[in-house]
Structure formats: structure tokens, C-alpha cells
TrEMBL record:
<dbReference type="GO" id="GO:0008270">
    <property type="term" value="F:zinc ion binding"/>
</dbReference>
<feature type="domain" description="MYND-type">
    <location>
        <begin position="162"/>
        <end position="201"/>
    </location>
</feature>
<feature type="domain" description="SET">
    <location>
        <begin position="110"/>
        <end position="387"/>
    </location>
</feature>
<dbReference type="InterPro" id="IPR001214">
    <property type="entry name" value="SET_dom"/>
</dbReference>
<dbReference type="Pfam" id="PF00856">
    <property type="entry name" value="SET"/>
</dbReference>
<dbReference type="InterPro" id="IPR002893">
    <property type="entry name" value="Znf_MYND"/>
</dbReference>
<dbReference type="InterPro" id="IPR046341">
    <property type="entry name" value="SET_dom_sf"/>
</dbReference>
<dbReference type="GO" id="GO:0008170">
    <property type="term" value="F:N-methyltransferase activity"/>
</dbReference>
<dbReference type="GO" id="GO:0008276">
    <property type="term" value="F:protein methyltransferase activity"/>
</dbReference>
<dbReference type="GO" id="GO:0005737">
    <property type="term" value="C:cytoplasm"/>
</dbReference>
<keyword id="KW-0489">Methyltransferase</keyword>
<dbReference type="GO" id="GO:0005634">
    <property type="term" value="C:nucleus"/>
</dbReference>
<protein>
    <submittedName>
        <fullName>Uncharacterized protein</fullName>
    </submittedName>
</protein>
<keyword id="KW-0949">S-adenosyl-L-methionine</keyword>
<dbReference type="GO" id="GO:0008757">
    <property type="term" value="F:S-adenosylmethionine-dependent methyltransferase activity"/>
</dbReference>
<keyword id="KW-0808">Transferase</keyword>
<keyword id="KW-0862">Zinc</keyword>
């Protein structure tokens, strides 16, 4: 439990931690002109300066023209069927809820606490051991952006979700004004209209806002409008609870924006989008009329609202949750999802990113649910993998994504592990458990140091294998032969630990080569299984990209004609197939983590086919299971 000053800081989100850009590092790497610290102190100040500048040099006229000459009303909306089926969205999941709610954090389980760390800011940690598959948070989004279902926006965005509460709706009410927003009930329609929709309706009709994944101006506007309905009250209710059902604005207001980590071109894009929003609000809506008789300086108030929208834009970029579904019925592709919008959930926004997460987000009708994907120890931080980051990429590639999209450099345990690999990458030749590094190479002998044995170890064997691997790699680069790749894998098995990432790269290549060119189908299974063993060791079995890739592997094996020719298996091959059949059965259980049982039915034909293909093996597996 937190107390006193610490608790105040953390709950209020402000904390005494003011993130400052790492000036030396940035200026060292990038051109100085991109750095803006001297120019802008914070989001509000940035917007004031920008707005003053565009007013001064006349550029504002371009924005006014753009707003005044918005396109025509889009005819296609009139084609939207008014009684469209809910497209199974609500039926996707059973309702889920946390077993016992926290008294300190809205929507969270009592097993979670808020803490703060110097490198990552606020975080949620487990205050007791948590099992796999437990519901940790079950949150109703505070602000929601549902992508409109207009056909000119594209099929990808088609969605039958209430734009106010997020519920999927079987029959819906379409707003008569814009014909874009749909609502599940008259109550939602009325609420939305009163709180925000009357200000956005005109722009929505004319595609004023881009619904692209990288544009947050529409969501920023909605966040500001939510604030306006709460009189822009940013003071949390006394009582020290994080989050408030009636007024979550104080908790939105303090979400991480990473404004000071952004480069000038990005900031300029945001300022421009917000200036557009502001001009739109002034010229096309009566949003500001309600404040006119309150004796404030309207010019200052415009700038205040603009500053708020800049802040919310940056926050939306860092904290939004993509409303998407695991959609494994379509081609079993990696990350095959149907994107439908973005949500701001202040409690879930406390979760930091990890490239080897211990929890995942599921969208369950109008709820956003966080579920543990492995056992979490007491005191361990709860982490998710941010949806734009593909944890299957290598560390440098992942860092490009986190830096470009979220403006932070990931310092999770997996990134640290991958970086440490560079320091002591080898398997100790003495104990075969510890990590060793080379320390010396004299008179034909290579000596290393093992961090487990805590002493020097001979490394000649390792370096002999390195030499062979290097030669094989050179030959492979010319011939692309499977034999040389196999030889590299054998050398790597001596040099590195069996679940290490260098081996993963070689197995991935071997799998692809065998799948495309190989004569022996059993090798596809062998390397496919090895690949997933390493991935699951480093990440988790219940990790959606891994699961979908695995289902893809199984379906590929089923499709391989050559398997029908496999008759006589030797003992080793028999074992491989036995493991494979076991995995095919197990994956069904893993799928149930993400989908209700009727949605896993698509998987049954694969299971049946595999069991028929390898009848002898599956019979024996069944016997083994019965004995066990
Ligand atoms: C959704 S918020 C998470 C909560 C945040 N720590 C806070 O105090 O509000 C995302 C921000 O947390 C920080 N963060 C999250 N994961 C991180 C990681 N793995 N490494 C470094 N910073 C991280 C970044 O500043 C990121 O923009």
C-alpha cells in the first residue's frame, strides 16, 4: 500500500518526474534543427506559439479555407443498412469480470498495486502471485473513437459498434445528421449528441478527420470534449483512488504524453492537426458559444483548448488501445485482426510495454479486458506488448518502432537480455548452463570466462565451430543450400544455448527452405517445432502472434501433399511426429484462451486430418495419455 506524498504523486499521475529529453544523445545522432526544447516548454506553450505564428504569417487563412470548403455530404452513407447484423462481435466472448475489485484502482483486480519506477514511470505490479488466465482489469473505455462505417472509408473499418458505449449492436439508430455514427439505443444517441456528437457531426459527414491508425486528431477532439463536459476539472476526487466512474478526466489529463521526446516534424504535424480542429470548432460549431458570456478572454480560451488538444493528441498516441479482435478464421495469418477503433482506458494505460509480456488485452464487447498469459510472481510488474510492436522482431527493429511511434526506448527485460547477449553470448563449454564471454586468445588457445562457474574456461571448441559456421555461411550466401544451413545449425548448437535467439534465426531459415524446396516433409515439422520451442521459451505459449503462427504451421503441414508418402518412420522421426500430434491437440486449449469454443471449431478439421495422417502415432499418444 502507498501512503503520504508518494501516493499523492502516483495517483495524480503528475509525480515529481518531469521527463527531459536526452539532449546529448539526440543532438549527437540527429540534426540539431529538429530539436525543439528551447522553442516549446509544454504542449500549451507550443500551440500558442504555433497559432500566433500562423496567424502572423497568414497561413491560418489556408486552414480556414480548408475548413470552409470541406467536401460535400457523402451520399454513400445513405446506403448503410439500418438493420445490419451485429456480425458476431458481441457473441465473440463470454462476459468476463475481475473476481474481486481493487479498492485503490478503478476496474482493476485487488491483486494489483500502482508503483512508480525511475525509468518507466507509473506501473502496475502484482501484490500476490497470480495464475495464468486470470482477469486483471476489466475496463469500460472513458473515451472511444469508433471508426465510421462509411463505405468510402473502406471495408476494413466497417463496424457495427455503438459510437457512444462501444457495444456491438444488432439493430441500430443512425444519426440523422451525419448518417455516420450509429447508436445502440435512443439513450446512447441522446447522450452522445448532448456531450460531443453535435460538435463533430458536420465534420464527420465530410470526412474531415482521417481515420488512419497514425492520426489521433479525432480522438484528441473527443478527449477534449469529454473534458469540457466535466468543466475541464483536472483535480482527482479526494480519497486517493485511481480512476473515477463519473469523472475520469483528471486521470486522462495525467497520462504520459512523451511530448518532450518528439522530434519537431512530428510536433508540427500535431500542431497543424489541432489548429484545424480548433478552426473547425470556431467556424462550424457553436462549441464556444456556451463560454461567451463568462467574461473570459476568448482568444486565450481558444488557445487553452488548442493546447489541451495537443496534449490529448500526444497522450492518445501513447495510450490508445486498438479495438481489434483475434480473427483466426481468415487464413491463420499473423496478427490477422479486424480493426475497428481506438479506446482510452486510463487504468489500462498504466501498463507498461514489454517485448516478453505477462498479460494481454482482449476486446470483449464494450469491455477492454487484461488477462494474464502466464503465472506472475508477487512483486512482478504487469506488462503487455503494445500492439504496434511485433515482439518477434529483433531488438533494434523493435526499438525503431517504440521510438518512432511512442517516443520511448524500450528497456524491458527481453531487450536487456538481448543486449546482454552481446556481452556474454556463448554456452559455457564446462557447465553448459552458464553464459560465457571470450577474454583472451593467446598462442592458439582461446580462453573465456563463465559467469556461472565464476572462472576461466577453455573456448577452443567454440571458436573452431565459429570458424566452420563462418565458412558455411559464406558458401550458403552463394549456394543457398540446405546442407550448409544444417551445418551452421549444428555449429550453433555447440556455441549457443539451445533456446537462444541466434539458433532461432537459423531454424527459421531451415523451416522456410524445407517448406519451399525440401524433399523431406518431416524436416518441416522438425524445424517448425524447434522454432516454436524457442519462441515459447522466450515469450509465452499464450501469446497471440505465436499462437496464430503455430496454427499456420499446422495447416501448412496438413496441406503438404508429400506427407501422404510418409510411411515408414524411424524412431527419431516417430518422436517428432508424436510431439507434433501432441501439439496439435494442445493448441486447441490455447485457442480457448482467446476465443469461445464455437469460434475454435474452424480448427477441428485440422486436428482430425492430422490425427488421420498419423493414425499410428495418435493411437500411441492416446495410449500414453491413458496410462498417464
Ligand atoms: C501507456 S503508458 C504506461 C504508463 C506510464 N508509465 C505512466 O506513467 O503513465 C506508456 C508510456 O510508459 C513508458 N513506457 C512503457 N513501457 C516502457 C518500456 N518498456 N520502456 C521504457 N518506457 C516505457 C513510455 O514513456 C510510454 O510512452
Amino acid at each position: 500500500m502507498l501512503d503520504g506524498k508518494d501516493k499523492h504523486y502516483i495517483m495524480n499521475g503528475g509525480s515529481n518526474r518531469e521527463r527531459q529529453p536526452d539532449i546529448k544523445e539526440r543532438i549527437g545522432v540527429r540534426n540539431k534543427k529538429y530539436f525543439f526544447k528551447e522553442q516549446y516548454i509544454n504542449e500549451s506553450n507550443a500551440f500558442c506559439k504555433y497559432f500566433e505564428a500562423i496567424q502572423h504569417n497568414g497561413y491560418i487563412q489556408n486552414i480556414i479555407d480548408e475548413v470552409d470548403n470541406m467536401g460535400d455530404f457523402c451520399d454513400l452513407y445513405t446506403d448503410v443498412p439500418k438493420n445490419y447484423q451485429a456480425d458476431q462481435i458481441n457473441l465473440y466472448y463470454e462476459p468476463m469480470s475481475v473476481s474481486e475489485g481493487s479498492a485503490e484502482i478503478l476496474y482493476a483486480s485487488h491483486a494489483l498495486d500502482i508503483r512508480e519506477s525511475a525509468d518507466r514511470g507509473r506501473k502496475l505490479v502484482a501484490n500476490k502471485s497470480i495464475g495464468k488466465g486470470k482477469i486483471l482489469i476489466n475496463e469500460i473505455p472513458t473515451v472511444l473513437q469508433v471508426s465510421p462505417m462509411c463505405k468510402c472509408v473502406g471495408e476494413r473499418y466497417c463496424l457495427y459498434r455503438c459510437h457512444n458505449c462501444g457495444k456491438a449492436c444488432k439493430l441500430f439508430y443512425v444519426c440523422d445528421g451525419c448518417n455516420v455514427c450509429i447508436f445502440c439505443s435512443r439513450v446512447c444517441l441522446y447522450q452522445a449528441y448532448k456531450n460531443y456528437h453535435r460538435y463533430e457531426c458536420y465534420g464527420l459527414q465530410r470526412h474531415f478527420w482521417s481515420m488512419e491508425d497514425t492520426d489521433y486528431s479525432y480522438l484528441a477532439l473527443r478527449m477534449m470534449l469529454y473534458g469540457a463536459t466535466k468543466q475541464f476539472d483536472t483535480q482527482p476526487v479526494i480519497g486517493g483512488v485511481y480512476g473515477h466512474v463519473e469523472n475520469n478526466y483528471p486521470f486522462i489529463y495525467t497520462l504520459e504524453s512523451n511530448f518532450h521526446q518528439m522530434m519537431l516534424p512530428r510536433v508540427n504535424k500535431i500542431l497543424y492537426s489541432v489548429a484545424r480542429n480548433l478552426v473547425y470548432l470556431i467556424r462550424k460549431t457553436n462549441f464556444f458559444h456556451q463560454y461567451k458570456d463568462k467574461n473570459f478572454n476568448m482568444q486565450d480560451f481558444y488557445l487553452y483548448v488548442g493546447g489541451l488538444m495537443v496534449k490529448h493528441y500526444c497522450q492518445a498516441q501513447n495510450n490508445n488501445i486498438l479495438l481489434k479482435y483475434p480473427n483466426m478464421t481468415q487464413g491463420f495469418g499473423l496478427n490477422v485482426v479486424s480493426g475497428t477503433g481506438k479506446a482510452i482506458c486510463p487504468t489500462i494505460a498504466l501498463l507498461n510495454h514489454s517485448c516478453t509480456p505477462n498479460a494481454t488485452i482482449l476486446i470483449c464487447s464494450e469491455f477492454v479486458v487484461v488477462k494474464s498469459i502466464r503465472t506472475i510472481r508477487k512483486g512482478e510488474e504487469i506488462t503487455i506488448c503494445y500492439s504496434e510492436v511485433d515482439a518477434l522482431l529483433r531488438v533494434n527493429e523493435r526499438h525503431i518502432i517504440t521510438e518512432e511511434i511512442f517516443h520511448f526506448t524500450c528497456c524491458c527485460s527481453f531487450c536487456t537480455y538481448e543486449k546482454n547477449l552481446a556481452i556474454a553470448p556463448y554456452k559455457c563449454p564446462q557447465c553448459a548452463v552458464g553464459n560465457a564471454k571470450q577474454v583472451d586468445s593467446k598462442s592458439g588457445k582461446t580462453v573465456g570466462y563463465c559467469f556461472k562457474c565464476l572462472r576461466s574456461v577453455p573456448m577452443n571448441d567454440i571458436f573452431d565451430n565459429f570458424k566452420i559456421a563462418k565458412i558455411c555461411r559464406n558458401v550458403y550466401n552463394v549456394t543457398y543450400s540446405i546442407e550448409h544451413l544444417t551445418r551452421i545449425a549444428e555449429c550453433y548448437k555447440v556455441i549457443f544455448h539451445e533456446n537462444s535467439l541466434p539458433l532461432l534465426d537459423v531454424y527459421r531459415l531451415l523451416y522456410e527452405k524445407h517448406y519451399l524446396w525440401g524433399e523431406k516433409p518431416i524436416e518441416v515439422v522438425r524445424y517448425g517445432l524447434l522454432l516454436f520451442r524457442i519462441l515459447e521459451y522466450n515469450m509465452s505459449r499464450l501469446y497471440l502472434p505465436i499462437l496464430t503462427a503455430k496454427v499456420k504451421l499446422f495447416s501448412q503441414v496438413v496441406e503438404m501433399k508429400k506427407f501422404s508418402e510418409v510411411r515408414d518412420l524411424n524412431d527419431e522421426e516417430f518422436d517428432i511426429i508424436k510431439t507434433f500430434v501432441g501439439e496439435v491437440v494442445n493448441v486447441k486449449r490455447d485457442l480457448l484462451f482467446y476465443l469461445p469454443s464455437d469460434k475454435c471449431l474452424f480448427y477441428s478439421p485440422i486436428q482430425t486430418k492430422v490425427q488421420m495422417m498419423f493414425q499410428r502415432v495418435s493411437l500411441q499418444s492416446n495410449d500414453d495419455q491413458a496410462q498417464a
